[in-house]
Every structure is written in C-alpha cells, then in structure tokens.
Specification:
This protein is an alpha/beta fold. The chain has a single domain, classed as Aldolase class I (TIM Barrel, Alpha-Beta Barrel), CATH 3.20.20. It has ten helices and twelve strands.
Length: 332
C-alpha cells in the first residue's frame, strides 16, 4: 500500500474522517432520529474496534490526519477509551475529537482524556429544561451540564458547544447560551437546522439563520468581530466579542453552504463510506474487510468514493434529494 492523497475532481483534499461508532442514542432529538419504533443495526453488523482501526490506518496512509468519533451517541458504545487508545497509535494521526450529547460524559471524561482524546464537541441546544425536552424528547439537561463542567475541569485542548438553531423553538436560547459560553470560557457554535431529521418534517421556514442569530447576539453583547479562519476547510465562520470575552461561530449549511472548501469524509457505524453528509450513495468498506479484501482494496474504494464527490450538497437547489438516512444513521 503506497501513501497518497484523497483528492476529488475539484481539487479538494480530504484529511478529516468522521467515524460513527454506533447508531444508538440515549435521547431522541427530533432533528436527528425518530421518537420510537427505531430499527437499530444488529450489533454484528456494526464495525468492530479492530475494523475501525484498520480502516483509519488505511485512511491515514492516504492523507487523513484528523479523526472525529460520532454516533448516534458514541458514549453508549462500551469500551470507547480502548478504541481511542488504538487510534492514537496510528502514525500521522494528529487529532482525535469526539461529538457527544454530554449525558454520559461526566462519568467517562477522565478515561477519554487519558486514552488520547484531544477535543470535545458537546451538544447544548438550550439552557431551559423545557427547550431541552421539546427537542430531545427526554430529560437530561442537568447531566449535560455536569458533563460540560467535567470536560472543562479535565483540561481538553478545546471544548466546544454545538447548538442547533430552530426557528420557533430556540430563539429565546440564543442570548442565554452566549452568556453561558462567555461566563465559562467555552467556544459556542450555532448550527442551522438541516434536512436530516428521521421523521421528514424539516422545512426551510424552520431554519433560524446564522445571520439572524448574529444580529441577536450583537444586540445583546455589542459588535462581533470576524476572526481569521485558522483552517480554511472548517465549516464555521468565527467571530470574537468586541469586549474580548469569548468567541462564537456560525455553521450555515443552508443559507451559506461551505462545500467548496470541504475536506471531510465519513464512515457509518456499519462500515459504509460517504463523501458528503447529504450523499445518496455509499461505498461498502465492511464487505471488503469481512470478505478477505486487502488494504489496497480499501484504498481503491476510498479513492473511488472521493472521486464521485459532487461540488455541493444542493440543499439550496430545486432538485435537492434528501438522503434516505437520518443523521443518527449517518454520523454527525
């Protein structure tokens, strides 16, 4: 197996791999999964840790140097620190991050840090229990907050809060979330509501735009000053508060797509590679790994997947086709 780079037809270099370790979750956020009657993948169809590490090692040989573990909720997968330790030994992997809803974080945070996890993204869509339960359809805000404070105490390189912005639900949470992040020295990012809900209820009038949120924050805290993007492929447009207390970011996939700089690919919990969150095609890596295929076969599959990547996700296009899979089945 020779070293290479994952470059698509538009010259975008892919070095960021998002690995879904499970499709299961302990809450039921409506923007991600249905409330009931969920058909999770049987456990024998989910990639083993050994298969995940093998795939990540092959991807690293092709230029991937950043990994993010997602779900579902990744912390419901038993033994996750063991996986992180194994991933951390892969040559050329510079960064391992985790996206979590935070409910189980407080009890696992020290083991995750010791294993080699460097960064955390924690979902926090609101600070009122009413908002939390309306979105998550379960209780648990107090445990999320405990997880956030535990992560801060553990001293990760960066702990970021992710808030999904939904018109008609989260407007009243914008300023409290901004104040919470400033008070506790946390980076906050607002993410526009995307058409990846399992129940198919998304509509564009539910999108609370990043621009509207920015205006609300400026009215409360004063000017927001754009900052230089340290990584041109990052999805967020970052700002700092003019008074010097904190930074904030806006991920606007609906109103301001950032596809031209995308450097991400994904592998689902059952081993399908995706070149876009909104892709309607997948490439089966599990079949190769379980049917005697070689690492070179995985390399060819990776390059085939990236070569087929489109210029953009097309949410803003009249011929946009929503993926059949919901967010929990893809991986965030």
């Amino acid at each position: 197996m020779t070293k290479g780079k994952l470059i698509d037809s538009l010259g975008r270099i892919h070095n960021n791999l998002r690995i879904s370790v499970t499709d299961r979750c302990n809450i039921r956020c409506f923007y991600c999964m249905p409330d009931e009657n969920i058909q999770f993948k049987p456990r024998n169809e989910i990639l083993t840790f050994e298969e995940i590490v093998r795939f990540a090692r092959v991807a690293a040989q092709q230029g991937v140097n950043k990994l993010r573990l997602t779900g579902g909720e990744p912390l419901v997968r038993a033994g996750l620190p063991k996986l992180i330790r194994q991933l951390a030994t892969i040559p050329d992997i510079d960064d391992i991050a985790l996206t979590t809803n935070g409910i189980l974080l407080a009890e696992h945070v020290d083991a995750l840090k010791r294993a080699g996890l460097r960064r955390l993204n924690i979902s926090l869509d609101g600070l009122k229990e009413e908002t939390f339960e309306r979105i998550a359809r379960r209780k648990g805000l107090d445990r999320v907050l405990q997880g956030i404070f535990a992560a801060k105490a553990a001293g990760f390189e960066r702990t970021r809060l992710n808030a999904i912005a939904i018109r008609g639900i989260t407007e009243s949470e914008i300023v409290p979330l901004g104040e919470f992040a400033r008070q506790h020295g946390l980076e906050l990012r607002f993410i526009e509501f995307m058409p990846l809900d399992a129940e198919g209820n998304w509509s564009d009038d539910q999108v609370l735009s990043g621009e509207d949120i920015r205006q609300t924050l400026q009215e409360a805290f004063g000017p927001l000053v754009p900052t230089v993007r340290p990584d041109p492929s990052q999805p967020a447009m970052d700002y700092r508060f003019a008074d010097g207390v904190g930074t904030i970011g806006f991920i606007n996939p609906v109103t301001q797509p950032f596809c031209s700089d995308c450097n991400r690919l994904r592998i689902t919990a059952e081993g399908n590679i995706r070149n876009c969150l909104f892709s309607i095609a997948e490439w089966d890596a599990r079949k190769i790994m379980r049917c005697g295929g070689s690492d070179d076969d995985l390399v060819r599959l990776l390059h085939e997947c990236i070569a087929a990547k489109k210029s953009g996700h097309g949410i803003d296009s009249p011929d946009f086709v929503k993926p059949e899979r919901a967010m929990y089945q893809i991986g965030g």
